[in-house]
Amino acid sequence: MTTESPKTPFFITYLPIYLDYLTVEKGLARNSLSSYATDLRQFGRYLADKGIDIESVDRLAIVRYFQSLRSAGIAARSVARALAAMRGMFRFLVAERHLKKDPTENLENPKVWTTLPKSILPEEVEALLRAPDPSTAEGLRDRAMLELLYATGLRVSELIRVRIDDLVMDAGFLRTIGKGSKERIVPFGDTARDAIVRYMETGRPEYDRFGDPHLFLSRRGRPMSRQSFWMKIVKHARTAGIRARISPHVLRHSFATHLLENGADLRSVQMMLGHSDISTTQIYTHVSRARLQKLYEQYHPRA
Question: Catalytic: 155?
């Protein structure tokens, strides 16, 4: 990245106004002012490289910028400092009527979207799904849970709350209540449906002592807990020979990444994941691009 500043309105007009404000009215210390200026100049160069005018910067552009910082290996603390600098600048420019909107307003915690989600390869998913022993009630339950989790991308809290009445088996979908008490419909395929049917017919009766309506029950006849399922998935990952650290959330990330890599559109994945803002789903396109880049560098003779 070049150190010379492009001749854009950001550098000619907006940044100097804000830095003058920090110097004269806020009385910012020299070191702090230098840090703010460095972070903001880097952002300005990013906008110039992408051909984005500061007047048209929106929330998604901000998210993409911070994704680029994290993928470049910038530390989380430095990313948070850059966000603070940008928030201050946009608030000032809106308050002074230089800009009409603040794209950083109500932006969620950067930890949610600056770190690339981890996923595992499709062949690793297959090995994980085969790991539970289908000759036992526990194995039938665990396989059904894993199949349904990968088939739907549910959050683990949503998975353990699934009730039998939430399933529409002949149509292959379920109802779930996600964040913000929002109901959504999520489809699942024949493989997950077959695993659920086998579990319900052969495995679940061993656990159903109290007539609990939840689909997945523990040995005590109560709904599975988040911690119990996390321990199960770690155990099965070890059996499958998966070296990467794994959790229920990794399967959710793998669900989204594999869908996009196979041609699914972003809006459909957003609906299935239950994201209220598509900018949260957008990070998975970055994961897909990162994987493609890695494959290219690994296999192309002139990479």
Answer: yes
pLDDT in tens, 230-278: 999 999 999 999 988 888 888 988 998 888 888 888 888 888 888 777 6
Query: Catalytic pick from 155, 193, 204, 232?
Result: 155
Asked about 249 being catalytic, the answer comes back as yes
pTM of the model: 0.60
CA distance 52 to 74: 22
295 and 261 within one domain: yes
User: b or e along 121-144 (b: 16 or more beta carbons within 10 Å of the residue's beta carbon)?
Assistant: eeebbebbbebbebeebbbbbbbb
Decide if 252 is catalytic: yes
Compute CA distances 51 → 45, 54, 184, whole Å: 10, 10, 37
Q: Which of 50, 111, 179, 219 is catalytic?
A: 179
Residue of 253, 258, 275, 286 marked catalytic: 275
Task: Tell me which residue range forms the domain holding 226.
Answer: 122-299
Q: Is 28 helix (H, G, I), strand (E, B) or coil?
A: coil
Residues 172 and 272 in one domain: yes
Q: Which of 41, 204, 284, 286 is catalytic?
A: 284
Establish whether 97 is a catalytic residue. no
Residues 45 and 2 sit within 8 Å (Cβ to Cβ)? yes
**Options 143, 232, 252, 253, the catalytic residue:** 252
CATH code of the domain covering residue 82: 1.10.150.130
